[in-house]
User: What shape does this take?
Amino acid sequence: MSAGRLLSVLLLLQSRGRMSARAIAEELGVSVRTAYRDVERLQGAGVPVCAEPGRGGGYRLLDGYRTRLTGMTQGEARALLFAGLPDAAADLGLAAEVSAARLKLLAALPAGAREEAARTATVFHVDAPGWYREPEQTPYLSLFADATLARRVVEARYRRWRAPQEVSRRLRPYGLVLKSGVWYVVAATEDGTGTATATVATYRVAQVLDATLSDERFDRPRDFELGAYWASYLADFAARRYTGTATIRLSPRGRRRLPDNVAPEVVRAVDATATAVGTDGWVEAVVPTESAAHACGELLRLGTDVEVLAPAALRRAMADTVGALARAYGVTGRA
Assistant: This one.
């Protein structure tokens, strides 16, 4: 029998008031019989739990009774950061800790504040992952969370985009970042001599093919700040991502559809550079681009609402793709 579960029953009754055995069982993920036994053990320990029979009855604490046994475990304290992100907590293996920490916080509040907190929780929901994408499988996420907190080296096999695609790395994880539903680990790597390199890198956790937690420990640099690193990484990523520009013409409908089909940087560029051409609402703008192939695929989502004017290579890529589509559908010319 778990002493922690008995405390959870006590805190539930303190924060919720009257609860049936079935409601307690559902909240804690145990059987109704176990809930009955836990309540009996609380009563046997001297906790004034009153049973109210009949429809609408249940268990409640004697009026005025409040426990001060709300001390949090180390895991629950860590889990507080994810109290508003249940999916993230579950990914990290902290779902139970978040639930327990939240319960202890509610129990420590006076009645009015507790009711307000419970009411607030019913009207806000955080859903971190982006649209049109299945959640990534991250079987090694909890391992990296443990390694980050314990400052232990991880032996990992990683799949990257450039050759060789599969590489082995000894990682010193400095932190984890959740970006639009995707988990990244920020870590220093080691060279063949076992010495950590000066460069800190970012690894997508879903691309980790295998990982083992070693017994070797490391010291995280005192001047490393995860938020500052991530901001710098994003700025550097954007600078490396866009290596060229394109001049396009865009219809009014195309401009309205823009945010749903291209990156925010492209939308901002259109807003900053758009100039009217003619009287039909079309505009001309200069937008940042990656490769011609990537820009072609992105702009083709807008169909006839966009025309590429320059550079010539991108305009040809658009024309070649449209021509190939026309041939695939048996269209050889205008009717």
Observations:
- The mean pLDDT is 83.
